[in-house]
Amino acid sequence: DDEKEKESLRSQKEAEAPFTPFKSVAGNANKRKSFDVQGSGTPKGGRLDPEKLQSLYGDCIKLANDNKITAKNAWSMNLLDHIRGLASAGETDFVTAGCTLDAAGKIYSCRVDSV
């Protein structure tokens, strides 16, 4: 009887367990909306050519260094949607990558603060 009761409690706890992304199935409906349905990582507005991507990175890094990122303008910066392009750009150095991640962190924190 004890084993049946323990098994019953285990199954009940598993059913009531909070959602964790590590247990979710890859085709889950809770995927990020900024990426396409196939999961290839394409941003909503499409991929940017390398010149526009570098311009986007440069503008966001400049705004982050000047502390010009606010809760109002953080939503208009789409650096977070195109951050994957930084890894695919072959000539990116660690300084650029670090500054871009810093800018992305500031944008994300301002977005969180505005909610």
UniProtKB/TrEMBL annotation:
<keyword id="KW-0226">DNA condensation</keyword>
<feature type="region of interest" description="Disordered">
    <location>
        <begin position="1"/>
        <end position="51"/>
    </location>
</feature>
<dbReference type="GO" id="GO:0000796">
    <property type="term" value="C:condensin complex"/>
</dbReference>
<keyword id="KW-0158">Chromosome</keyword>
<dbReference type="GO" id="GO:0051301">
    <property type="term" value="P:cell division"/>
</dbReference>
<dbReference type="GO" id="GO:0003682">
    <property type="term" value="F:chromatin binding"/>
</dbReference>
<dbReference type="GO" id="GO:0007076">
    <property type="term" value="P:mitotic chromosome condensation"/>
</dbReference>
<keyword id="KW-0963">Cytoplasm</keyword>
<dbReference type="InterPro" id="IPR022816">
    <property type="entry name" value="Condensin_barren_su2"/>
</dbReference>
<keyword id="KW-0132">Cell division</keyword>
<keyword id="KW-0498">Mitosis</keyword>
<comment type="similarity">
    <text>Belongs to the CND2 (condensin subunit 2) family.</text>
</comment>
<keyword id="KW-0131">Cell cycle</keyword>
<protein>
    <recommendedName>
        <fullName>Condensin complex subunit 2</fullName>
    </recommendedName>
</protein>
<dbReference type="GO" id="GO:0005737">
    <property type="term" value="C:cytoplasm"/>
</dbReference>
<feature type="compositionally biased region" description="Basic and acidic residues">
    <location>
        <begin position="1"/>
        <end position="16"/>
    </location>
</feature>
<dbReference type="Pfam" id="PF05786">
    <property type="entry name" value="Cnd2"/>
</dbReference>
